[in-house]
Amino acid sequence: xxxxxxxxxxxxxxxxxxxxxxxxxxxxxxxxxxxxxxxxxxxxxxxxxxxxxxxxxxxxxxxxxxxxxxxxxxxxxxxxxxxxxxxxxxxxxxxxxxxxxxxxxxxxxxxxxxxxxxxxxxxxxxxxxxxxxxxxxxxxxxxxxxxxxxxxxxxxxxxxxxxxxxxxxxxxxxxxxxxxxxxxxxxxxxxxxxxxxxxxxxxxxxxxxxxxxxxxxxxxxxxxxxxxxxxxxxxxxxxxxxxxxxxxxxxxxxxxxxxxxxxxxxxxxxxxxxxxxxxxxxxxxxxxxxxxxxxxxxxxxxxxxxxxxxxxxxxxxxxxxxxxxxxxxxxxxxxxxxxxxxxxxxxxxxxxxxxxxxxxxxxxxxxxxxxxxxxxxxxxxxxxxxxx
Length: 388
Description:
With about 400 residues, the chain is an alpha+beta fold. It has one domain (about 30-385). The protein is about 35% helix and about 20% strand. The protein has helices at about 1-5, 10-30, 30-45, 115-130, 150-155, 160-170, 190-205, 235-240, 245-250, 325-330, 335-340, 350-355, 370-385, and strands at about 45-60, 75-90, 100-110, 145-150, 175-180, 225, 230, 270-275, 285-290, 305, 315-320, 360-365. The strands form two sheets. A ten-stranded mixed sheet has the order 8-3-2-1-4-5-10-11-12-9, sandwiched between helices. A two-stranded antiparallel ribbon has the order 6-7. A hairpin with a 7-residue loop joins strand 10 and strand 11. It is globular. The termini are far apart.
């Protein structure tokens, strides 16, 4: 058995080569290559760029209580972290545009963390930037880019890709998705989620029973779960705790708040609460067509997806890896008919891919479990975005 395992061409050599190819893939789609080039492209092409990841659900432990039977553990909070970088007039409509990084956290009491909840979180964040804060208009950006992990239910299933076309058609902007490779390690979204949980724990550790006992450095945490006959929202309680002025502005002390914004990695933290039932299209289930048949040819083998409103219908263009070489970037300045033209032999990495990184058009159709009424609602949602 051992001889078969270590012989040339045996199991050990086979999986050693697989590991070698995987490590190369991780580096190609990692922070030092793909993400860095995406940020450079976003700045030059006037794009709104986001890094997105769901954090582990937050479940508070009151007073670090270890006797779980004394306190209910049925409530938890879903957290999706979105670190958005864009150039805007943050100091008023007359100020000069400047590029900042804003950390968004979408909180919710709902249990599902799927494509529909991700879509609603995206719409909440964009509404906050475009409508509430009025930092940007649609004319200020050319494209929306996000960098996500490869979780199928949230970012990389056919339903998740279909939501990209919904957003692109609603806003009339290209939506570009870069998917990181499996095993990419922790990113700063994970770090932000950990910071939020640690900060919230301070209030639950110092649990106070009455509002009048609230301390200046310790927001009040209610001891009851029902108020006026309604269940209290744990997501709203956590959101209130995180709205600390120093924490929002990423300062550890009052002296640290004097630091220049350009010296901070994150300029501001913003928190949004998604109410129960707010997520649309929860029962829309889609399948897709357009990938080549054969091993390593399907959706799992692709890490770049682009929803373009100038492509008729709900369709997404896919290629194996995102590429930000000069010829590939210049394609997005061309008419829609030339952007995704194959073969991509003008790419600087053509000799590496030899056609494997050409574009494929992915179309969608509802599965048998898809809710027909919600599909009609999605069409109406697109028309409302177009002003029809």
